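Reminder to self: C-alpha cells first, then the designed residues, so the page reads top to bottom the way the pipeline ran.
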C-alpha cells in the first residue's frame, strides 16, 4: 500500500548507517552495520514507505570505501524508491581506501544526487523533499554554500506541495540545549545556520528539517515566534550507535506522525549501550553536568521518538515555558560555551 491507497505520504529517514562490511567495533557497532542496515531496509519495505531518505554517512568510508559503497548500493536497491545526500564520511579528501563524494554520487546516480550535483528536489504525493549538501571537505562541521542557499531558495519558491521537508546531514540547532559545548558546536552544527534557519522559517509550508550526524534522537521546534511559526528540527539517531534507530514520518491530515524503527537483532541494543559509553562523546557529555544520563540523552524522550507533530505549532506536551526559555538562552549566546 503506497500513498495512492493510504492517502498519506510515508517517508523513511535513515541516516548515518556507516555501512562497512569490514567495520570494527568502537563506540558504534560498525561490525554489525550490514545486518542492522539490512533489517531496517526490510522493515521499511514491510511498512511500504513511499520514499526512503538516506541522510549522509551512509557508508563508513574508512579504509574500505569501495566495499562499503558496493554493500550500501546492493542493499538499498531492495527499496522501490530511495534518495540520498552525502555526509562528512563521503566528503573526506580521499586517502587510500577512501572514495570521494563524486565517486559516491556516481554510484547512487538517479537516487537524489548525481555526479556534479549533490542536492535534489523531488515530490512524493503532497510532500516536496529537498536534499542539500551541508558538507565541507576536510571538516566534520557543516557549511552551506551560497550556491546551495540560492538553489534551496529557488526550490522553496517553486514548490506548490502542501508540505515541504528539507534533508541535510548537519544540525541547525543544538540538540544538547540548554547546555552549550563549543567543541560540539564546531563538530556538529552548520556554521552559517542562522541564514539557513531564516530562509526555511520564511516559508510557512516548511514542516521539518531532517538531519543526523550527531547520533542522537531529538525533535525540537525552532524559529517559532511565541507559540506560532517555525518548523521541526528532527535529529535522527544512527542505526549503528545506541539507541540504534531509523524513523518513519507519516504526513497525516493535521501533522507528522513519527515512529521509531529499531533493528530486530537479538543483543544489538544491549551491546550498543555498552559500546557507546566507551566513546569520546560520552566523555564530553559528562563535562556538561547535565541532569540526564548520556544514555538518556542520546535515546531521547518519548517526545523525541514516537510522537505526533502538529503542523502549525509544537506539540502541547512539549511546549512548557522551559522550551522558550531554553531557546532564549541559546539565541542570546550563539557561540559561548559553558565548558569544553
Ligand atoms: Fe556525520
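Designed residues (340 positions):
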Amino acid at each position: 500500500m503506497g500513498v495512492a491507497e493510504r492517502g498519506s505520504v510515508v517517508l523513511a529517514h535513515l541516516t548515518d548507517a556507516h555501512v562497512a562490511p569490514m567495520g570494527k567495533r568502537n563506540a558504534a557497532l560498525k561490525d554489525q552495520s550490514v545486518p542492522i542496515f539490512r533489517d531496517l531496509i526490510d522493515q521499511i519495505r514491510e511498512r511500504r514507505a513511499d520514499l526512503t531518505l538516506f541522510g549522509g554517512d551512509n557508508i563508513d568510508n574508512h579504509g574500505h570505501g569501495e566495499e562499503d559503497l558496493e554493500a550500501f548500493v546492493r542493499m538499498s536497491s531492495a527499496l522501490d524508491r530511495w534518495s540520498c545526500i552525502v555526509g562528512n564520511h563521503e566528503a573526506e579528501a580521499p586517502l587510500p581506501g577512501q572514495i570521494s563524494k563524486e565517486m559516491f554520487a556516481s554510484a547512487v546516480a538517479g537516487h537524489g544526487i548525481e555526479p556534479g550535483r549533490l542536492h535534489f528536489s523531488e515530490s512524493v504525493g503532497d510532500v516536496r523533499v529537498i536534499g542539500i549538501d551541508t558538507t565541507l571537505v576536510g571538516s566534520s562541521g557543516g557549511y552551506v554554500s551560497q550556491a546551495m542557499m540560492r538553489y534551496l531558495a529557488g526550490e522553496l519558491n517553486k514548490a506548490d506541495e502542501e508540505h515541504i521537508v528539507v534533508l541535510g546531514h548537519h544540525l541547525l540547532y543544538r540538540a544538547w540545549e540548554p547546555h552549550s559545548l563549543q567543541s560540539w558546536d564546531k563538530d556538529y552544527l552548520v556554521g552559517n545556520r542562522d541564514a539557513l534557519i531564516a530562509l526555511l522559517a520564511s516559508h510557512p509550508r516548511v514542516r521539518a528539517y531532517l538531519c543526523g550526524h550527531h547520533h542522537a534522537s531529538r525533535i525540537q521546534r525552532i524559529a517559532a515566534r511565541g507559540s506560532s511559526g517555525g518548523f521541526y528540527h528532527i535529529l535522527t539517531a544512527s542505526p549503528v550507535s545506541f539507541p540504534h534507530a531509523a524513523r518513519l514520518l507519516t504526513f497525516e491530515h493535521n501533522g507528522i506522525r513519527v515512529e521509531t524503527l529499531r533493528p530486530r537483532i537479538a543483543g544489538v541494543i544491549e551491546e550498543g549501550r555498552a559500546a557507546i559509553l566507551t566513546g569520546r562523546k560520552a566523555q564530553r557529555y559528562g563535562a556538561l553536568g547535565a541532569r540526564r544520563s548520556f544514555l538518556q540523552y542520546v535515546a531521547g524522550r518519548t517526545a523525541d521518538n514516537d510522537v505526533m507533530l502538529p503542523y502549525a505549532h509544537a506539540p502541547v506536551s512539549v511546549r512548557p515555558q522551559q522550551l522558550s526559555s531554553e531557546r532564549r538562552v541559546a539565541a542570546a549566546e550563539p557561540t559561548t560555551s559553558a565548558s569544553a
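The CA atoms of residues 18 and 60 lie 4 Å apart.
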